[in-house]
Amino acid sequence: MDSRGAPGEGPTGEIGGGLFFVHLFRIHLGGRKAGKRKMIRVVALGEVEDAPLQKLCARLYQIFGVGCELGPDMPLPMSMRGQGGKSGVDGIELLEKVHSTRHLPRSKDITIYITTKALKSVKLPTGVQEQPQSISLPEKGGGLVSLSGLTSGKAGGNAAALLTARTSRLAVHEVGHLLGLRHCVEAKCAMYPPWTPAFAASETVQLCAFCQDKCEQKLEET
Ligand SMILES: [Zn+2]
Ligand SMILES: [Zn+2]
What we know:
This protein is α/β, with parallel strands linked by helices. It has one domain (21-221): Collagenase (Catalytic Domain) (3-Layer(aba) Sandwich). It is built from six helices and seven strands. Strands 2-1-3-7-6 form a five-stranded mixed sheet, with helices on both faces. The protein has a two-stranded antiparallel ribbon with strand order 4-5. One zinc ion (ZN) binds at residues 173, 177, 183, 194. One zinc ion binds at residues 184, 186, 189, 191, 207-208, 210-211.
């Protein structure tokens, strides 16, 4: 247990009136600071199971140290419901559509959307990225993680754990980009390029010390 308690939570009982004042004072400071800080939101598009998303939220909170909130869910945009299948939907289009509905233009918060749809291959200046598992729009504070295909492969009995770990790693990766981070050369780091076999096989979700520091710096700035 953390004996310091949550921010704004004052000591209780014992001294009475004096402490009540201290308590209010602490709420005030905590509140001002909290108002400036970023929040992370995880929003399911359509039907996604709740339990892994709750785990994901806990993981994001643990890694970035900022509040992470789940939901409310959003329906897939009408125009994209029948689309997709194996070849996938246009991830950028989907992200732009849902994010412009959901996101307040001046908010500094980060939203990670979760979809079960596969994402279409994307043409990049450096070549084609085959069916990406996640994308983000850094200038808009929105990221998208696809759960499609994450349960297949050689995960075996550990599929659920791997699914959660991979989903979490992808979400951490996109939050990292949304905070201005680039890819990292450390294979165990969540900022390692996600299309690599090492990224897919890893069961841990962590940032290297360098990326962790950088995130903390970015979060201090905002
Ligand atoms: Zn990336
Ligand atoms: Zn790193």
